[in-house]
Amino acid sequence: MDKAYFSSEAYSEDKIRAVDAKFEAQKIAFSPLTFQAVRALLGLGILRLIEEAGDRGLSTADIADKAGISEYGVQVLCEIALGMGVLRSVPHDGGEERLALGKTGWMLLEDELTRVNFNFVNDICYKGAFDLCESVRNGKPEGLKTFGDQWTTIYEALSSLPDRAKKSWFEFDHFYSDIAFPEALPIVFASHPKHIVDIGGNTAKWAIACCHYDKDVRMTIVDLPGQTRVAEERAAAEGLSDRIGTLSGNILSGDTKLPASPDAVWMSQFLDCFSLHQVTKILSKIREAAGAETDVYVLEPLWDKQRFAASAYSLQATSLYFTCMANGNSKMYRYGELVSAIEAAGFQLKTAHHNLGSNSYSLLVFRKASS
């Protein structure tokens, strides 16, 4: 088992100098404006123009001419970009300041993790985040009303979201978990399961991957009606309708009954959509359906099992999305608290595989605890 980069001790020290702490505080104070400045730099094509100029850089006048906007507009955006380290100033023989891309600017343009996170925050979270305080007070995703007031969770709204928001949500959801699939598949299929129940199967990506990996496996996707419709369409497009079935329903509802005694139950980035109390409730339902030899697989990005600061921070920030937009009561969990909630339903942790994929996912494997 690889050692996680972060642990509780990583957050126990406060060695920053006061002058640097003040600078960090200003970054927080102005963060809504700086976020929108980056959005403008991307949307107006300014960062791309500067990247294409290479180390020679461009003057603000050159940028204004190429982008077709005023030099004033270029100046206010590029000056804050200098302050953020998105751009850097490069020397020029004529004495005219030129701007080139900084490492942070390159990440904003070319790093897939940053792109997915940025679009997700802009298209899903930004407006609703204004209601974070009320969400915490009420235990409800008060920001969700930016998309309409007819839903209690974002999962009910997914099929009705505007196209751009829907695209950003699914790219965010798939980017994280899908990267771990190639490493997870051999672990799951080492025991040669013939029937896997995929709870929260979403658009059937995992089910399709399983069917391509093993020609004999049969999949049952359990999800909300809007999601199972999409899953059925995807399965049909892959010619797998005979091996991928669906069961529509709310996993928390007493009316939703799971298939009995599957060889395996799979949940990928699913349990973080529920409170710990609900996690135990879901696993209790799974326990009723599971046989003595049923393996229960939980694939999750646990923030205290990450190797890099950026990953841990991204997960901690994602918890705020759950609070104000998704459901008002869940978050990205630590290893110990998630395991405890699952074991409270009568399961026992068999194995834990950490650092799967570039996003350091954890694959936890459970079986019914012996009485």
Please explain how this structure is put together:
- The protein has helices at 18-29, 31-43, 46-53, 60-67, 71-84, 103-110, 112-125, 132-138, 154-157, 163-178, 181-189, 205-213, 225-237, 276-289, 309-326, 335-343, and strands spanning 87-90, 98-101, 195-199, 218-223, 244-248, 264-268, 295-300, 347-356, 361-368.
- Helix content is 47%, strand content 14%.
- The chain starts with 17 loop residues before the first helix and ends with a strand.
- The strands form 2 sheets. The protein has a 7-stranded mixed β-sheet, with helices on both faces.
- Strand 8 (347-356) and strand 9 form a beta hairpin.
- The longest helix has 18 residues, at 309-326.
Report the radius of gyration as a whole number of Å: 23 Å
User: What's the overall geometry?
Assistant: elongated
Instruction: Point out poorly predicted stretches.
Output: none
Describe the strand arrangement of the main beta sheet, using strand numbers.
5-4-3-6-7-9-8
Order of helices and strands: HHHHHEEHHHHHHEHEHEEHEHHEE
How would a textbook summarize the main sheet?
A: 7 strands, mixed
Structure keywords:
seven-stranded mixed sheet; about 375 residues; two-stranded antiparallel sheet; 16 helices; single chain; alpha/beta
Short précis:
With 371 residues, this protein is α/β, with parallel strands linked by helices. It has 16 helices and 9 strands. The chain has helices at 18-29, 31-43, 46-53, 60-67, 71-84, 103-110, 112-125, 132-138, 154-157, 163-178, 181-189, 205-213, 225-237, 276-289, 309-326, 335-343; strands spanning 87-90, 98-101, 195-199, 218-223, 244-248, 264-268, 295-300, 347-356, 361-368.
